[in-house]
Amino acid sequence: MLLALSTLYAGLAHAADEPDTPLQTVTVTGTADSDSYTARSTRSAAKLDLSLRETPQSVSVVTRALMDDFKLDNVNQVLSTTTGVTVEKVETSRTYYTARGFDIVNFQYDGVGMPVVFGNVQGDLDTALYERIDVVRGANGLMASTGNPSATVNFIRKRPSASPQASAAVTLGAWHQRRAEGDLSGKLNDSGTVTGRAVLARQESDSYLDRYAPKKTVAYAVVEAHLTPDTVATLGHSYETNRSKGPMWGALPLYYTDGTPTDYPVATSTSADWSRWDTTNHTTFAELSHHFDLGWSAKATVSHITDKSDSDLLYVYGTPVKGVGGGLYAYPSQYASSQRQNLADLSVDGKFTLGGRQHDLSFGYGWSQSTLQDVSRYGQGIGTGMPGQTAFDGSYPKPSFDASTDGSAYEDRRGTAFLAARFNLADDWKLLTGLNRTRARSSGQSYGTSKYKSASKTTPYLGLVYDINRTLSAYASHTAIFNPQSETDASGVPLDPVEGKTSEAGLKAALFDAKLNVSGAVFKTRQNNSAEQAGMVGAKAYYRGVNAASEGYEFEASGALAKGWEASAGLTRLTALKGDQGQAVRTYVPRTTLRLNTTWRLPQLPALKVGGTLAWQNAVSIDQEPGIRTTQAAYATLGLMARYEIDRHWSLSANLNNVTDKKYLTSLYWTQSLYAAPRNGSVTLAWTY
């Protein structure tokens, strides 16, 4: 891969040296912000290009530099380093995310919403496709199709450049990890009006978990064409496959029949030798943007997404007998699903004059159609006892999957119109206000129960920013919450929509010419009927609606603390997360989290960059049977990195994770869990042009 890229770019470099090529002067790769851990502006909160200080909500930005420094090659790793976000990895292949006490269900790609209407996130989602990832905490009532008080995650894809750019890297890591990736960008015609970019990544490894061996392939291509000086058309496609041998379906039982907690070796798994879980994602998108006179612009986006999953799995349930073994039972199943989403989004933004002042306006409409078809073929022998330690050695024989069949076939449609205006009330007062009108409908069947629902609501948004001086601002915002949900109760009936309201206020500062952004916020949320797992029917979880109130505060700093010293740090504290009667709810959510990522380029040896990452959370728990509570004590994990730039093109880096070899459970979101990876490391050789 390195040789191929070097050969190709030798040709491009030669072309760039031709006298009639005006772009040769922009091939210098070093920029002032190339190592930055912050961003000067974002459109993730209002589709208006606002600085972080002008945005009346808490916003975290995970830049490409941060991802590269700490080898954050998947979305779980990125979000686990982000202020206020908790990654609930319930299995090897399924994950939930929470923020401010509630599930994150709003995801966007380049600002276009992608409803997660069928539950959790599957697979090991790679980050090679993205330039950065924005996390807007609180209810993003303007840009998201549904308001939710947790957060909105906006994945910002890599885009082409007219100047030739390329990079490649090879990584070798613990448990025979092997990863190769390449990124190529440049103009596709002589004039540079058509540009393209391609990204490839391949990773495979064994695992610290017994029998688990994942591998994935990622490919991404995007082309931009400047049809006129003011009109740009973009077409892109991404492909990602995950092929996993020995994945877990469910996880480890957490207590014995005598009520005492289990304590297995970190590598323990309930998977069978024949278990597998394969997922494939195709995403195609097309954009057309046009800039009009007087500062107005419009953008239309259409996307088509397919997710397919195919698996042979073994779920283990029951309560083990301490010192003897047994007490556990087998639930084998063969599962296949196909999800399709069609998305369309149109937005317009610009400026207008009123009362002698210039103001900003943004409005648009988004539409989505999501369909799911899945089938479960249950294996012979469900309920078979697993004596001794046979639940953990992978020896359960593969059955025929013809005991019975069940499945789903349903559709979800959503339409959202939004209007946002940013009024320049005075030199130091800005008012961001607007509304979001969403209608959500679904129809079909899921495992013998109806999935019909129809709900609509208009949610207002209000945000006020006061510039105290040129670097410091105070802000406050308020919005309503409305979120149809697909989780079902014990009878298989979908829960009613979540409703509520949330408010936030704080201070923001942009220091050192906006190279360092600092913020502090207090927030308060009331949310009714939020889904919380209430139990299991076989291998299928069922839920109940829980009313909850969340209050807390958070602090964050991101960017350059000094020349060569970058940092991203955040503290979140939930002072209250309670139900109607004042009782603690969602006890698996940590009430306090600390995230710290920092790197330092040595002044005496500027080719060397060193850094560390620290993540800490307080104790969490979950109630099992009456009188039995599982607790994960507070813990911290430490990571270290070092990178040496051999020359202007080559660098060698090393990363060490979980330095203290801390043993802890990945999540208590479910009544089962697994252990996180022990101490591990990797070495990467990278080339850039």
Structural write-up:
With 689 residues, the protein is mostly beta strands. It has one domain: TonB-dependent receptor, beta-barrel domain (Maltoporin, Chain A, Beta Barrel). Helix content is 4%, strand content 57%. The protein has 3 helices and 36 strands. The strands form 5 sheets. It has a 22-stranded antiparallel barrel. A 5-stranded mixed sheet has the order 1-8-9-5-6. Strands 2, 3, 4 and 7 form a 4-stranded antiparallel sheet that branches. Strand 31 and strand 32 form a beta hairpin. The longest helix is centred in the N-terminal third of the chain and has 15 residues. It is globular and about 80 Å long. The two termini are 14 Å apart. The N terminus is likely disordered.
Q: Summarize this, please?
A:
By secondary structure, this protein is mainly beta. It has a single domain (about 40-689), classed as TonB-dependent receptor, beta-barrel domain (Maltoporin, Chain A, Beta Barrel). The chain has helices at about 1-15, 65-70, 75-80; strands at about 60-65, 85-90, 95-100, 100-105, 105-110, 110-115, 120, 130-135, 150-155, 165-175, 175-185, 195-205, 215-230, 230-245, 250-255, 275-290, 295-320, 330-355, 355-380, 405-425, 430-445, 450, 455-465, 470-485, 500-510, 515-535, 540-560, 565-580, 590-600, 610-615, 620-625, 630, 635-645, 650-655, 670-675, 680-689.
**How many domains would you count in the coordinates?**
1
By secondary-structure content and strand pairing, the structural class works out as: mainly beta
Average pLDDT over all residues: 90
- CATH fourth-tier homologous superfamily: TonB-dependent receptor, beta-barrel domain
Q: Looking at the structure, what is the overall shape?
A: globular
The CATH topology assignment is Maltoporin, Chain A
Helical run tally: 3
Percent strand? over 45%
The CATH architecture designation is Beta Barrel
Q: Identify low-pLDDT runs.
A: 1-32
Largest sheet, strands/sense/barrel: 22 strands, antiparallel, barrel
Percent of residues in helical segments? under 10%
The Rg value, from CA coordinates, equals 25 Å
The top level CATH class name: Mainly Beta
Distance between the termini: 14 Å
How many strand units? 36
